[in-house]
Amino acid sequence: MALPAITETKANLMKSFLIDRYKKGGALRLGESPEPALRDNDVMVEIHAAGVNPVDSKIRDGEFKLILRYRLPLILGSDLAGVVTRVGSKVTRFSPGDEVYANSGQDRIGTFAEFIAIDQANVALKPKNLTMDEAASIPLVALTAWQALVERAKLQKGQKVLIHAGSGGVGTIAIQLAKHLGAHVATTTSTANIALVKGLGADVVVDYKKDDFEKVLQGYDVVLNSLGKDTLEKSLAVLKPGGKLISISGPPDPDFARQNGSGWLLQQVMRLLSSGIRRKSKRRGIRYSFHFMTANGGQLAKITSLIEAGDIRPVMDRVFPFERTNEALAYVETGRAKGKVVVTVK
User: Fold this and answer.
1) 184-210, pLDDT tens digit by residue?
2) 151, 279: one domain
3) Torsions phi, psi of 312, nearest 5?
4) What is the CATH number of the domain that holds 97?
5) How far does Cα 190 stand from its chain's mean position?
6) 220 and 159 in one domain?
7) Are 171 and 193 spatial neighbours (Cβ–Cβ below 8 Å)?
8) pLDDT tens profile 294-323
9) Which domain holds residue 43?
10) In angstroms, rounded to a whole number, what is the distance separating the alpha carbons of residues 188 and 273?
């Protein structure tokens, strides 16, 4: 799917972290870019903080270049918190001075910068009880958890859900959301993070360094997977017939390809990549699906209500200054972060 580049002005320049070409493990370049132009439905946001996510590394490495066709050079980053400075002619939801947070959407990334123009449909007012840094940590992981557990799994009170990697960005929010929905929550983590995930509400914690989760857990309704192929396949043993296996780490399935507007050839590639897990799931009466988060300001507003009510809280690991964005990205790539990593832009 070809994606439109952000239209740029030539008037004002802003600091930004960019890539000039796809390169695995490559460093981002700190440079100056034109401030983005404002479309009719856009809000211009002065970015105060930006969340750092594993997907940023994957885009830099070129893993999504067949699906997300960006124009280079490209500013990375999709999570932000900041202040609205201008609004487009058709904007009705926000005004200059509003404190907001958002995921920009994969078609208009670029939050590792001083400003960004975003469609108002992707934006929500910042939770009043969060700092800018805390708010920037929320959008991608919270929307992922919401869309997987509420929209796709339709998780109900009393159901049992296994959330892998409970101390990670998605895991820390997904545990809290699942508990809010009234589910019985199990999670996997390392010995060092057991207290953290129990504090978030996990009912059962499997220390993956000591136990095999597929031998300890059974009769679950939903599994949310963010790990590799081995964990994905072992998760089938945990689910009861009729259960749902939702993966945010792949492999992508034909439904995702169709929803993403992929061409026939790419649809067939995704069909082939997911054929093994779909076949094994079908044998057990389990539904496998791949989920790729989509930006949604309306859903983010519902998450805001849960945050302000104290049902969900951010879990922060480290905050880096803007000039150390490369270090922040490298730290996320280690896979050792407890919760989220953020860069302070302003």
Assistant:
1) 999 999 999 999 999 999 999 999 999
2) yes
3) -135, 135
4) 3.90.180.10
5) 22
6) yes
7) no
8) 999 999 999 999 999 999 999 999 999 999
9) 8-137+314-344
10) 26
Look at residue 283 and give its three-state secondary structure: helix
- CA gap 255, 78 in Å, rounded: 24
Count other Cβ atoms within 10 Å, centred on residue 83. 17
Which ranges of 309-346 does DSSP label H, i.e. alpha helix?
A: 325-333
Between the two ends of the chain, the Cα-to-Cα distance in Å is: 34
Per the CB < 8 A criterion, the answer to whether 64 and 23 are in contact is: no
Is 309 among the domain residues?
A: no
* Angle subtended at Cα 48 by Cα 43 and Cα 52, rounded to the nearest 5 degrees: 100
57-98 residue pLDDT tens: 999 999 888 777 899 999 999 999 999 999 999 999 999 999
Residue 164 near residue 176, CB atoms below 8 Å: no
pLDDT at 8 over 60: no
Within 10 angstroms of residue 310's Cβ, the number of other Cβ atoms is 8
Widest distance between CA atoms in the chain: 61
Do residue 129 and residue 202 come from a single domain?
no
Pair (232, 323) in one structural domain: no
Rounded Cα distance between 280 and 278, Å, is 6
Per 3-state DSSP, the chain is made up of helix, strand and coil in percentages (nearest 5) of 35, 30, 40
> Contact 44/64 with Cβ under 8 angstroms?
no
Q: Is residue 296 part of a domain?
A: no
Q: Please indicate, yes or no, if residue 302 is contained in any of the structural domains.
A: no
What values do phi and psi take at 342, rounded to 5?
Answer: -135, 150
**What whole-number distance in Å separates Cα of residue 310 and Cα of residue 127?**
11
Q: Crossing angle, helix 325-333 and helix 54-61, to 10 degrees? A: 100
Do the beta carbons of residue 101 and residue 140 sit within 8 Å? Answer: no
Give domain status of residue 335, yes or no: yes
Find out whether 200 and 175 touch, Cβ atoms under 8 Å: yes
CB–CB of 264/308 below 8 Å? no
If one counts the domains in the chain, the total is 2
User: pTM to 2 decimals?
Assistant: 0.93
Query: Distance of CA 238 to CAs 167, 227, 285, Å?
Result: 20, 15, 13
CA separation for the pair 190, 193 (Å, rounded): 6
